[in-house]
Amino acid sequence: MNPNSIFGRYLMKQILLAFIGVMITALGIIFIFEMIELLRRAASTPQITFWFLLKMAITKLPETMDMIFPFVMMIAAMITFWKVSKSNEYVIVLASGVSIWGFLTPVLTATFLIGLVNITIINPISSKMYEQYERLNVKFKMQDMNTVIFTDKGLWTREMQENGNIMVIQAKFVNQEQKDLLLRDVSVMELDKNSRIIKSTEAFAALLGKEHKLNLKDVKVFAPGQSTQKHNTLTYHTELTPKRIKETFVTPEAISFWNLPGTIKFYEKSGFAVLKHHLHYLSLLASPFMLMAMILVAAVFALRPNHRRGGVLFLIVGGIVTGFLVYFMSQVIYAFGLNGYLPELMAVWTPIIITACLSITALLQMQDG
């Protein structure tokens, strides 16, 4: 069936409305429980206001939405299929000569478009909200509303210079100073291509801004065979920026889909492990296809020519249980990929392929029956 046909547009509209309704309902319920939990945790902390907790609950919703997105899509599809089956619209379409695959084409098309909108438009917004939630969560745990510390674990990074040398930057503390970053107890080590030390620089503090300049203060420079040199200030050119450093302390979910490729490339160049970020990026690319696989699962359990035969509750429960099994299987396989036991592409695509193949097999048997 052509998605641009009248009935095709009708199906696309129905699945979209069902998806929005289920998503709003699910997020509303989760938001209420999250607020109750935050209020309970903050009961003994009078300096934490209600509005602060409300902001925390709202900014955490994107993380929850990413988790329940496939389930919401599957439940929305089950509602849509149940409605068209109950009203005998599905029977009429089949009687007109349209196969089950023609019937599913508009729904799968709408689902794929929803997946594209999710990763290209919704994900950049939700990543910013999730990043804000992480900051608020740190303040909540420290019970200090004015804290701006990114991390107390310090910073350790390296990068290649234009001349082929390697510059290793280490700082014990990283703090935010307006739009710049203040680093304390800083050490900069320059190595040649054979990893031999050219010189080492230590500073009491350093300021890193957007200009790709690391401005050191109260500096001591140590070089083999030379006496120690002292400087009030010293500047290093670097590819690091406050945004790059900030991203090293947040999860991949807090980085926008559009920024992930550049972040991964920068991490690889700087010597960071990028497996977690790369897997997250691949999972985002594959997410529209996972949603389509969940639609096929919903069709197996909810798309019936006649629901008057009974067993509707059994089909609904079976669909939900199957959805949870698919999610559990995908998380287990993803964990294997995250630990390096499986190739990245296999870790991302195996659950999708298995789910789609099993669902297609069941639908073919239904059509033959």
Layout: helices, strands, pairs:
Layout (H helix, E strand, L loop, with lengths): L5 H36 L8 H37 L2 H7 L4 H43 L6 E3 L3 E6 L5 E12 L2 E12 L5 E12 L4 E10 L6 E9 L4 H6 L12 H11 L4 H28 L9 H27 L5 H25 L1
Antiparallel strand pairs: 1-3, 2-3, 3-4, 4-5, 5-6, 6-7
Helix pairs in contact: 1-2, 1-4, 2-4, 2-7, 2-8, 4-7, 7-8, 7-9, 8-9
Defining key terms:
single chain; 369 residues; alpha+beta; lipopolysaccharide transport protein A fold; 9 helices
Structure, described:
The protein folds into two domains: 6-144 and 275-368, no CATH class; 149-249, lipopolysaccharide transport protein A fold. The protein contains nine helices and seven strands; from the N terminus they run H-H-H-H-E-E-E-E-E-E-E-H-H-H-H-H. The longest helix has 43 residues, at 100-142. Strand 4 and strand 5 (197-208) form a beta hairpin. The chain is α+β, with helices and mostly antiparallel strands. Residues 144-153 have low confidence and may be disordered. Strands 1, 2, 3, 4, 5, 6 and 7 form a seven-stranded antiparallel sheet that branches.
